[in-house]
Amino acid sequence: MTDQLQQALPVSTLVLGACGGAGATTTTLGLANTEAARGGAVVAVDATPAGGDVAERGADAVLSVSGLEQLVAAGPVADDGAGPVADDVFDGYCSRTSAGTRILNRIGNQTAADREFHTLTVALRARRVSAVHDLGHRLRAAYLAPLLATPTPIVLVVPCRADAFNRLRSALQSIGDTLGEPGLARTVVTVSNQDATGWQVDLDLLREYLGGQVWGVETIPYDEHLGMGIVIEHAKLAPETRAAYQRVSAAASAVAEGCAERV
User: This protein's superkingdom (predicted)?
Assistant: First the structure.
């Protein structure tokens, strides 16, 4: 790892679904658990407008009754003014996976606000913790400004269906309109197969179509454990699925390193 990349940590990865039900939440958990399983300090963050189910899907060790809003209410500094929220207090707001990922879910009925992510960024940087943000399927939202302010890897998840591939064009246009060509250049398109009968779309055609527009195209195979809709345990995923998340994680890390070298 280069000195520049070390200085750029913590690395944030943004996971965006090309449409509803694309697999953004499971991919968020897969990437975060991959990092945690190899010893990294990582938080999976619910960055959807009104709150999603990242904790309910992934917290197989501890499901916290607190979350992101409560962390923000606690403030970015400790009571003595000496620094960020104490580690044990921060951890108290987090759910956990058995792989070691901490999860900050949204608790309550308020929609997301940019101040929440400003506060969270301060807390994560103080701890040098990586974050994987589940954006759902919306990128054009004012509250995401703190997450989009710096070059960040984007993992765009699309289910392996012809209709979803057609909607992929709109998602890519949203990234291009919001972040320009540099945003597309740091996007890893990730095809998630949710069909037990196999791959229903020609991925080589997709790679040919996207060539030169995005960083690359990765795939996540069908996994019975994910398809059951129960709480995800990383250790119960098929070896092929864990290997796929490792490939996507490596691609995101390569994007981050490339961004750091250009700083």
Answer: Bacteria
The count of domains in the chain is 1
The closest alpha carbon to 14, from 40, 41, 35, 44, belongs to 44
Reduced to 3 states (helix: H, G, I; strand: E, B; else coil), residue 154 is strand
In the chain, the amino acid numbered 109 is N
**Least confidently predicted of 118-127, 138-147, 174-183, 234-243:** 118-127
**CATH code, domain with 76:** 3.40.50.300
* Among candidate residues 15, 4, 47, the one with its CA nearest the CA of residue 187: 15
Would you call 159 helix, strand, or coil by DSSP?
strand
Q: Is the pLDDT of residue 136 over 60?
A: yes
Of 46, 39, 35, nearest to 11 by C-alpha is 35
User: How far is it, in rounded angstroms, from Cα 55 to Cα 32?
Assistant: 12
Positive or negative, the CA dihedral 63, 136, 37, 88 is negative
Element (H, E) at 216: strand 216-220
Coarse DSSP helix, strand, coil percentages of the chain, rounded to the nearest 5 percent: 45, 15, 40
Sequence-ordered list of residues with C-beta below 8 angstroms from that of 108, at least 6 positions apart, any chain: 51, 67, 69
